[in-house]
Each structure stands twice: as structure tokens, then as C-alpha cells.
């Protein structure tokens, strides 16, 4: 389940990010200015002018490109909550499976949509892709709640959600390679759409909603999971306690951390290829290769951080709450500082690549930090919680690419520095909120309605007794 969940996220991200590389070849580019005092880096001007692809393509300005790149997230936000609720009620197998399948089909149709409708056709198709992919994380969270014991959540969560980095690696590297070898940007959409359909076939055959419904699970593993998850998971959850959820302070602290993570992450994922081609003047293959490197490091670091976090919690060196806060802080402050340093490294391409790689590597600490925190708060409503948290956070996927397009009309270093300063500010503010009010403890509303009311009354009674004792 963990491996197929990992591949689900990886496939979802390859189909999401391949456009970030392809769009650099889809648009009409012009020879850079001879003057570099405005903050531009020198490129190979002869190659740029001589290459016929530089005078062909679609005449989309930076603002239009920002709208295209952000269109995916309009649909992505919409299906988060329905996807989470469906996964909790009927299981995550098919809400996830059909979501990825629909995204794969729309990915295959991308070249046709662009040729038929230009920028408008591509925007509409990206919104539809987002609708399909919006179920991914809520459904996976609901399934992890049924498969991952508390002592293994850091590792399983890092493995499954770390598929995003493999997807980014494959999407960026192979997009650059395939476009260079075929000479056609359309080929990347045919490649990743086909792989997505193949994944769905395997998922439908191999994976099931929970251990009880799995026909091939051993009795030993099934018994272990029942004992490990029995007191945390109610197989028949009652109606969703909306009021309690929306009044939960730890939940809103988690939402703030997700906003910070997503803003920084989407800025890097969506616009790093544009930075490399527009500012550093890398060719398409070099862009694909070097843009993939930070995600490879982030994937490795997320697994390492997950192992360290689980060990710390298991050895009781930290409470679950403090562990989540510590790793989230590492993943917020570290990447922001590295981005700023990269922007002030000028045209020193080696230093820039190293700093961006370090930034994404430190961002891997988000996975055992705030990414699995929804499971801590509520295993019974993990899909709904992830839908709320990830859905609100994904709004930054609309804001970040569009804002970058507005702030970098000429794609110069000085313009990009402002982008990274804003990112650092968002990281710091959202992390302070998480550190102040987050929790790693199960919330009282995770139980059934009657049990929850009973626990609420008991908690109020105990508080009154404690107050009387203090008096």
C-alpha cells in the first residue's frame, strides 16, 4: 500500500509539473539584452538567435504564463473536501484511483487542447486536471489512517508523500530529456499520461481500503494492525463534527503551516525551471537535469528526517507535539534562508544550484513535521482534515505562480530577489503560528459523537476539579 501510494503521488506530480518544463519551449522567446547591469545573466547569444525554436511558439507573456501555471490549482482546491469525505465513507481506493486516472486522460489530451484553443484551451484543461488530482492527498491520508501505526507514521508518511519528490525529479528530468531527444514538447504529455493509466490498472488490482478487506494479507500482519490501530481508529466513524473541527486551534495552526509550506514549495516547483531558463540562461536539457536535483535531495532527506523523527518519538526524547514543531521549523526557516542566499549569488550557477538544492533538502523535514500532523489530530477524520488543510494551502498554488509572473516581467535577478524575500516572510510568519498553537495529541472530537461528548464533559469536570484544588 505504501509503495503504490508513493507511486500514486509520484505519477500525480509528474503530470502536474511536466508543463513547468514544457512551457519554456512552448512560448516564443527572444534574444536576451546585451546589457547585464539590470541583473540579467549572460547567455550564449549566438545559440539563442541561431536556434529556430526561439522565433517560434506561442506569444504568451509572463503574466499569461503565470495564469496557465496556476490554473491547475483552481480545480485542485474544489475536489479536496468531497474527496476526503468520500474516502472516509467508502474508502480511498477508488476516490484516489479515479482521480489519478482522470488526470492521466486529460494529460494525454493536452497537445490537442493547446492546438485547438491556445492558452484558453490549456487553462481549461489544467483546471480539469486539478479536479481529478484534488482527491489524492485526502484519500491517501484516509488510507494511511487505516494502515499506519503511530510508531510508523513518520516513515510511512515520508515514503508516501515523498513520492512528490520522485514525481518532480522524473517530471523535470525526463521532460527536459524527452523534449531534447524528440524536439517536440507534446511528447512529455503522451509519456506521463500513459504511465498514469498503467499505474491505475496496478492500483485497482493490488490495493484495498483497509487490512480487513485485503484478500492477501497475512493473519499475523492483520492482527498486528488491528492491535496497533484499534484504539486510535473507529472503523465506523459517526457524522463529521464540523463545529468542533473548525473551532480546533491545533487544526488552524496546521493550516497556517500548510500555507507556508505550499507557498514556498509551489514557488520552487512551478517557477524554478523558469528561473533557470530565464535568469541563468540554461538550455532545456540542463534545466531539466539541474531542476530535478533539488527534489532528489528532498526525497532522500524526507526519508532520513522521517526515520530520525520516529526514533526521537519512540525513545521519548521528545513528545509528538514537540517533534512536529521542531521538524516543521527546520523545514521553514532553512529553505527560506537558502533561497535568499541563492538570489544574492548572482550568476554563479554552481552556488545557486547548491543553495536551491540545500533549500529543498531542508524542506524534506516538513513530511515528519506538519504533513503527518493531521493523522495525530484525528485518525477517523484524517481524509476530511487533510482536505481542509491541503485545500486551503493549495490556494497558494494559484497565488504564487501568478505573483511571480507579475513581479518578474523581465526575469532579472533583482526582480526574483523580491520573490524570495516574500517567500521567506511567509515561511517565518506561518511557522511562528504553528510553533505557538500546534499539537501532536489526538483531539477529543476524533471519537464517536457520544464518546466525544462524554470526553468533553469529563474534560470540563476535571478542569473544574483542578481549579478547585488550585484555589
From TrEMBL:
GO terms for biological process: monoatomic anion transport. Pfam families: MFS_1 (PF07690). It is a multi-pass membrane protein. One of its GO terms (cellular component) is membrane. Keywords: Membrane, Symport, Transmembrane, Transmembrane helix, Transport. It is found in: Membrane. Residues 1-442 form the Major facilitator superfamily (MFS) profile domain. GO terms for molecular function: symporter activity. The chain crosses the membrane at residues 67-87, 94-114, 156-176, 188-208, 244-266, 286-307, 327-345, 351-369, 381-404, 416-438. Its main location: membrane. PROSITE patterns: MFS. It comes from the Eukaryota. PANTHER family: AT30085P-RELATED, SOLUTE CARRIER FAMILY 17. This is Major facilitator superfamily (MFS) profile domain-containing protein. It comes from Euphydryas editha.
Amino acid at each position: 500500500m505504501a509503495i503504490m501510494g508513493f507511486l500514486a503521488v509520484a505519477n500525480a506530480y509528474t503530470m502536474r509539473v511536466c508543463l513547468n518544463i514544457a512551457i519554456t519551449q512552448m512560448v516564443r522567446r527572444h534574444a536576451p539584452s546585451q546589457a547585464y547591469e539590470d541583473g540579467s545573466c549572460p547567455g550564449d547569444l549566438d545559440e539563442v538567435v541561431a536556434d529556430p525554436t526561439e522565433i517560434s511558439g506561442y506569444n504568451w507573456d509572463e503574466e499569461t504564463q503565470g495564469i496557465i501555471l496556476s490554473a491547475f490549482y483552481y480545480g485542485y482546491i474544489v475536489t479536496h473536501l468531497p474527496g476526503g469525505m468520500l474516502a472516509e465513507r467508502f474508502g480511498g481506493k477508488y476516490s484516489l484511483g479515479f482521480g489519478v486516472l482522470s488526470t492521466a486522460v486529460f494529460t494525454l489530451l493536452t497537445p490537442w487542447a493547446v492546438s485547438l484553443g491556445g492558452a484558453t484551451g490549456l487553462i481549461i484543461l489544467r483546471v480539469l486536471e486539478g479536479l481529478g488530482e484534488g482527491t489524492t492527498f485526502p484519500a491517501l491520508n484516509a488510507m494511511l489512517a487505516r494502515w499506519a501505526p503511530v510508531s510508523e507514521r513518520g516513515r510511512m508518511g515520508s515514503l508516501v508523500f515523498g513520492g512528490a519528490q520522485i514525481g518532480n525529479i522524473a517530471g523535470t528530468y525526463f521532460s527536459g530529456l524527452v523534449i531534447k531527444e524528440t524536439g517536440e514538447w507534446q511528447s512529455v504529455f503522451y509519456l506521463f499520461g500513459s504511465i498514469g493509466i498503467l499505474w491505475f490498472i496496478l492500483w485497482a488490482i493490488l490495493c484495498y481500503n483497509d487490512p480487513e478487506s485485503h484478500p492477501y494479507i497475512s493473519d499475523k500482519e492483520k492482527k498486528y494492525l488491528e492491535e496497533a490501530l484499534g484504539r486510535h481508529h473507529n472503523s465506523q466513524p459517526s457524522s463529521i463534527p464540523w463545529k468542533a473541527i473548525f473551532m480546533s486551534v491545533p487544526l488552524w495552526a496546521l493550516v497556517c503551516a500548510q500555507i507556508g509550506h505550499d507557498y514556498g514549495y509551489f514557488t520552487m516547483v512551478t517557477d524554478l525551471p523558469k528561473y533557470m531558463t530565464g535568469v541563468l540562461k540554461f538550455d532545456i536539457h540542463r534545466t531539466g537535469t539541474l531542476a530535478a536535483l533539488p527534489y532528489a535531495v528532498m526525497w532522500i532527506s524526507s526519508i532520513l528526517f522521517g526515520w530520525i523523527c520516529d526514533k526521537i518519538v519512540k525513545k521519548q526524547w521528545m513528545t509528538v507535539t514537540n517533534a512536529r514543531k521542531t521538524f516543521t521549523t527546520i523545514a521553514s526557516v532553512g529553505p527560506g534562508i537558502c533561497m535568499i542566499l541563492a538570489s544574492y549569488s548572482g550568476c554563479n550557477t554552481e552556488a545557486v544550484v547548491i543553495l536551491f538544492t540545500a533549500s529543498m533538502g531542508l524542506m524534506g523535514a516538513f513530511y515528519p513535521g506538519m504533513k503527518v500532523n493531521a493523522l495525530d489530530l484525528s485518525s477517523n477524520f484524517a481524509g476530511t482534515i487533510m482536505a481542509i488543510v491541503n485545500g486551503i494551502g493549495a490556494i497558494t498554488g494559484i497565488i504564487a505562480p501568478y505573483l511571480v509572473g507579475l513581479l518578474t516581467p523581465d526575469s532579472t535577478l533583482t526582480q526574483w530577489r523580491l520573490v524570495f524575500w516574500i517567500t521567506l516572510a511567509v515561511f517565518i510568519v506561518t511557522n511562528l503560528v504553528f510553533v505557538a498553537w500546534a499539537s501532536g495529541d489526538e483531539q477529543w472530537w476524533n471519537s464517536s459523537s457520544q464518546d466525544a461528548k462524554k470526553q468533553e464533559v469529563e474534560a470540563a469536570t476535571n478542569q473544574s476539579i483542578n481549579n478547585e484544588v488550585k484555589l
